[in-house]
């Protein structure tokens, strides 16, 4: 699962005084881009040149394509690492599509989608001018299996034949020799690469966007030190990496050609990434936009409710706020193995009792959270199918909840415990937990709040053996489709008994498992999306969770920033499109 980009926790609660600035702006966010997400930047046509500054809370650590999880840390890795496919770099829903990158197309499957073939474009080069080959792509993937380079997405280990036992090219095999290859990746010539899978995977083109698919020249591989100077296949190369990504400086790769890269605009000459900054300071600097900060953005820091309230009174400043939607759902999870949650009527009662208005307010208000009644996010690419099996209106239906509790043998109500994190976030926070507590009280349900330190909370909710019966949880997809959203949560074969388990309900329904397999065979992504939506609606009837809200991201850009693009794939500003002149 991809975690959402870091939200400005401290800024959400702090009422800092934003300096009102008068930038030259075109129009407000409502009219910017197909998705209405891109902020209006400074007027004028984007031009090449200048330095883009990125101000972030978290460091761009582990800058190695094997160790990065998807596009980790916003979009910075995609400036250096190209992959076989990539996301379409456009606003809104159009940005949720997968398109070719290093490859000529998004892959060619065999009849049952168990084999995928890609062909590289002509003229691809690294920063040193040497040619990029499929052997480099194969090696880049193989090294991601090494234990010392762990941290990337797990799909290839599960999907490739032999991936579950492969340990990478560094460890010696039974014959004592290193450099063992993964036989399920075949490179018949320098431009062709074939992947052989254990089972049908119609969404393989999405997986090929992940950084493990970035080419790595074997002769330049320095193992765990590779992150200090990875060899660039993208428009920028690393010229400085201090304190494990705390200060990252990128400059143009002279051998990158825009002729074979239709997605990245690469306007600035230089990218200066500065991390480890306080969230409130980041937003203050972007608001003031003095000096280099006028050409600055953030890829990990949101605006909070107090800041948005102050910004709203100034049209020029408000026009520099971009809005993003990333496929993510915050929800109440049930463990039906724990009483009384083994009774569907109790789960239904809680579903009816929820006051989504108070939950949304606790999560920052309607500008930062949208109420949810479906598990899948409200985006076409996921297969979103509207449904509300337990209609509670905006503020809940306590009368219906009491009726169901009575039918379940609890005429005088019941007492339960809700587990949540004590971390100050707007997803699993004490504020959200308290809103749930107060709503359920109206239905005769007394809720005791169990707040745990974040690491302890995550460990407990992900334990198949010790998970509580009722807790706040969340899930985000690694790409905008139904597969990585529903399968980890509801596929019984993905229940993990001795590690991190995300199938909280421990649902192991043969019919659900079979439908997941059937959808995975589809290479027509539109048809697959419809099936995912129908499956979501069907599973929803069992009241195994209570969808609460989908987060919304609000971020400032400097007054001289142009060409802001925010897609529904990432929900954050795409730095490959930004211009500062």
Q: Can you count the helices?
A: 15
- Which oligomerization state do the chains in this entry correspond to? single chain
Separation of the first and last Cα atoms: 36 Å
Q: Looking at this structure, what is the CATH superfamily of the largest domain? A: Periplasmic binding protein-like II
Number of strands: 19
Main sheet properties: 5 strands, mixed
Helix/strand/pairing category: alpha+beta
Q: Flag low-confidence runs.
A: 3-36
| SS strand fraction | 15-25%
Second rung of CATH, namely the architecture of the largest domain: 3-Layer(aba) Sandwich
Shape descriptor: globular
Task: Give structural notes.
Strand 6 (185-189) and strand 7 (192-196) form a beta hairpin. It is built from 15 helices and 19 strands. It folds into two domains: 9-275, D-Maltodextrin-Binding Protein, domain 2 (3-Layer(aba) Sandwich); 328-551, Dipeptide-binding Protein, domain 3 (Roll). The model is unreliable at 3-36 (pLDDT under 50). The chain is globular and about 75 Å long. It has a five-stranded mixed beta sheet, with no helix packed on it. By secondary structure, the chain is of the alpha+beta class. Helix 8 (344-353) runs antiparallel to helix 10, helix 9 packs antiparallel against helix 11 and helix 14 (510-520) packs antiparallel against helix 15.
């Amino acid at each position: 699962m991809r975690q959402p980009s870091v939200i400005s926790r401290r800024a959400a609660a702090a009422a800092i005084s934003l300096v009102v600035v008068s930038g030259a702006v075109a129009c407000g966010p409502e009219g910017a881009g197909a998705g209405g997400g891109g902020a209006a930047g400074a007027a004028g046509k984007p031009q090449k040149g200048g330095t883009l500054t990125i101000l972030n809370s978290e460091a761009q650590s582990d800058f190695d394509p094997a160790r990065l999880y998807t596009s980790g840390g916003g979009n910075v890795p995609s400036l250096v690492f190209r992959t076989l496919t990539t996301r379409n770099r456009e606003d809104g829903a159009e940005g949720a599509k997968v398109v070719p990158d290093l490859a000529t197309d998004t892959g060619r499957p065999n009849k049952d989608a168990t084999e995928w073939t890609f062909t590289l474009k002509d003229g691809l080069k690294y920063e040193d001018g040497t040619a990029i080959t499929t052997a480099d792509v194969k090696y880049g993937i193989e090294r991601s299996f090494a234990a010392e380079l762990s941290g990337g997405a797990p799909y290839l280990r599960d999907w490739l034949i032999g991936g579950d036992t492969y340990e990478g090219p560094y460890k010696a095999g039974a014959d004592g020799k290193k450099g063992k290859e993964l036989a399920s990746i075949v490179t018949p010539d320098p431009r062709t690469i074939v992947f052989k899978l254990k089972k049908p995977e119609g969404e393989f083109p999405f997986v090929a966007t992940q950084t493990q698919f970035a080419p790595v020249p074997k002769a330049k591989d320095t193992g765990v030190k590779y992150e200090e100077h990875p060899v660039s296949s993208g428009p920028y190369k690393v010229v400085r990496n201090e304190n494990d990504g705390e200060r990252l400086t990128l400059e143009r790769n002279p051998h990158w050609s825009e002729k074979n890269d239709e997605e990245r605009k690469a306007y600035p000459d230089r990218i200066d990434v500065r991390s480890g900054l306080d969230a409130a300071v980041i937003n203050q600097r972007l608001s003031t936009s003095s000096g280099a900060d006028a050409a600055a953005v953030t890829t990990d820091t949101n605006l909070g409710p107090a800041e948005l309230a102050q910004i709203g009174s100034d049209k020029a400043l408000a026009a520099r706020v971009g809005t993003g939607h990333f496929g993510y759902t915050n929800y109440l999870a049930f463990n039906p193995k724990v009483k009384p949650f083994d009774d569907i009527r109790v789960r239904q009662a809680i579903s009816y009792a929820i006051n989504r208005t108070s939950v949304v307010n606790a999560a920052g208000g309607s500008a930062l959270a949208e109420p949810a009644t479906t598990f899948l996010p409200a985006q076409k690419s996921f297969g979103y199918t509207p449904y509300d099996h337990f209609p509670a209106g905006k503020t809940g239906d306590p009368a219906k909840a009491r009726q169901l509790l009575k039918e379940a043998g609890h005429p005088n109500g019941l007492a339960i415990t809700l587990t949540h994190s004590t971390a100050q976030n707007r997803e699993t926070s004490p504020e959200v937990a308290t809103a749930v507590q107060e709503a359920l009280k109206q239905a005769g349900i007394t809720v005791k709040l169990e707040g745990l330190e974040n690491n302890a909370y995550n460990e407990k909710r992900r334990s198949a053996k010790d998970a509580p019966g009722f807790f706040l949880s969340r899930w985000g997809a690694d790409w905008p489709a139904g597969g990585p959203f529903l399968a980890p949560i509801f596929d019984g074969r993905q229940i993990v008994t001795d590690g991190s388990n995300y199938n909280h309900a421990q649902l192991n329904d043969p019919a659900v498992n079979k439908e997941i397999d059937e959808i995975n065979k589809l290479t027509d992504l539109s048809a697959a999306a419809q099936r995912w939506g129908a499956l979501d609606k069907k599973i929803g009837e069992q009241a195994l969770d209570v969808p609460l809200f989908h987060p919304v991201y609000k971020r400032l850009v400097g007054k001289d920033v142009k060409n802001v693009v925010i897609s529904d794939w990432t929900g954050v500003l795409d730095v490959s499109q930004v211009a500062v002149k």
